[in-house]
Amino acid sequence: MERVTKHTHRERQRQWMAGLILAIYGLLIFEGVLRKWVFPEWGRWLFFVRDPLVILVYALALSQRMTPRKSVFLMAGLLLAAMSVPLIALQYSFAPSGFNWLLAAYGWRNYFLYLPLAFFVARYFELADAERLIRWTLWVSAPIAVLVYLQFLSPASAPINQGLGTRDDLLYRNGGVAFDVVRTYGTFTSSPGQNAFIASCVAMMLALWMLPKAQRRVHLVELVGATLAILTCLALCGSRGAVIWSALVSLAAVPAALAAGRRLAGRILVVPMAIGLAAILIVPKAFPLAVAAFVERWEGAYEAETAMYGPGGVFARAAFDLFSFRFLLADTPIQGYQMGIGGNAADLLGVRAERVQASDQQIGGAESDWGRQILELGPVLGICFIVFRVSLAIWTGVEALRATRRSRHPLPVFLFAFVAVLLFHGQMTGHGSLNGYTWLFAGLSMAVNRSLLRPQRRFEMYRAVRVRNIEACA
User: Fold this and answer.
1) CA 191 vs CA 147, 236, 289, 471: distances in Å
2) Are the C-beta atoms of 5 and 410 separated by less than 8 Å?
3) How far from chain centre, in Å, is Cα 83?
4) Which residues of 396-412 are buried (b: 16+ CB within 10 A; e: fewer)?
5) What is the distance between the alpha carbons of residues 409 and 259, in angstroms, rounded to a whole number?
6) pLDDT digits (tens, 9 = 90+) for 36-62
7) Is 370 helix (H, G, I), strand (E, B) or coil?
8) pLDDT per residue over 378-395, tens digit each?
């Protein structure tokens, strides 16, 4: 009985942990609602609304001895976090007059506060929790699609787009697409957050369509409704990044089919093609103005980017961003300039980057996240961080392929396809929503891989539920 009670207690603690993680995820999606419409005067401070829950996860883990599993990547991440503390002091010693401690704390937060969370998700999220998160995400996609449609119909200056702030610095500006068509942000305050929401939904939706009906845990009507909602958000977002990201996620069907085997390969390959064909036929007729504005935006940006980066447009720009950080290596001091100096918060806090003496090429390099790492951490620690994130992406991808091969379940590959963009080269340290998506979905990917590679974990969960039922009957 003592053993049963102890097991039940640990399962209750695990559920508390999973509940906190789901709450963080919910705030990630609806944080913008609080900042734009509910409490617009507190918009800047509500940027950190998820942080107390993240700290609570760590506090619960320390108090209840619920540490993540030992991981080379977790140890490496914690080592980088520890090394960055004396680095901040070193940066202050070289530039005390232009140093901003609040900006340094913000920069450290963007790099390292959420990093351990991924490994707590990997340790304490079961497959059933992942299925619940996916089901909940698909449910909320419908009201978000309605919000997106209303934003599309409204001008950029409408409260539904720029928020209810009473001052200019509390409003959220919209860059637009073309023909006075706005970029729809949904529940987020900017385009990158909405792009991540759409691409993650595409990954979840495709994985569910590829599963047999008995394994979906979602009714067909719900899945059809969510699919239409996700395609609506994608059609009206006006973002090339969202379209390209969703296309990359869809291409994950190829490795998923190879890993799942011949029996499921046909189904896995047909699903994204069928949904893509349906979107090509339906979207231009349903939203002709949105499609025309997007095409105009794509063609105009393609010409500008081809002139600057060479043939290929946006793809040439993406290739340039992979290597542009090298322009910063020679002239950046060994300690870097200051953590946080390469992000938007530098302008908000009045810390201008003019003191960073750089050429136009170097400034271009700093626009990528790898370039930001060199600028803020210095060449040595910056390269270490880049190697860390790329290595984590590669390892997670290998584990996802193994999990899909062993379980014949496509979800691991599609979750990885979504988060790999962020882990490898996304703006994970420069944008708050993308930072949250990176570490939450890196953990979710690792959790699903672990559950499917070691299915006995699921049996332990169901056994714990059965134990509680037996104990209640006794």
Assistant:
1) 14, 12, 19, 50
2) no
3) 25
4) bbebbbebbbebbbbbb
5) 9
6) 999 999 988 999 999 999 999 999 898
7) helix
8) 999 999 999 999 999 999
> Burial level of 339, CB count in 10 A (0-12/13-18/19+)?
buried
Amino acid making up residue 17? M
Q: Are 44 and 21 in contact (CB under 8 A)?
A: no
Return d(Cα 139, Cα 149) in angstroms, integer: 17
Percent of the chain with pLDDT over 70: 88
Given a contact cutoff of 8 angstroms between Cβ atoms, the answer to whether 219 and 226 are in contact is no
447, 411 Cβ separation under 8 angstroms: no
Please choose, from the candidates 369, 392, 416, 383, the residue with its C-alpha nearest in 3D space to the C-alpha of residue 119. 392
- Helix, strand, coil abundance in the chain, percent, nearest 5: 75, 0, 25
What six digits make up the tokens of 244?
A: 């390209």
Q: How far is CA 56 from the centre of its chain?
A: 21
* Cβ pair 326, 365 in contact under 8 A: yes
Distance CA 60, CA 65 (A): 8
What is this structure's pTM?
0.91
DSSP class of 181: P
Helix (H, G, I), strand (E, B) or coil at 183: coil
CA pair distance 133, 95, nearest whole angstrom: 46
Task: Reply yes or no on whether the pLDDT at 218 is more than 60.
Answer: yes
Q: Are 442 and 118 in contact (CB under 8 A)?
A: yes
Closest CA to 87 of 355, 378, 340, 328: 378
- Residues in contact with 81: Cβ distance below 8 Å, sequence separation at least 6, in sequence order: 108, 111, 112, 115
pLDDT at site 22: 96
* Cα 191 to Cα 184: distance, rounded to the nearest angstrom: 7
Element housing 446 (H / E):
helix 432-453
Given the structure tokens 């232009």, which residue do they identify? 98
**Higher-confidence residue: 437 or 327?**
437
Burial class (CB in 10 A: 0-12, 13-18, 19+), 26: middle
Kindly give the residue spans of alpha helices, DSSP state H, lying in 39-174: 51-63, 72-94, 101-108, 115-124, 127-153, 159-162
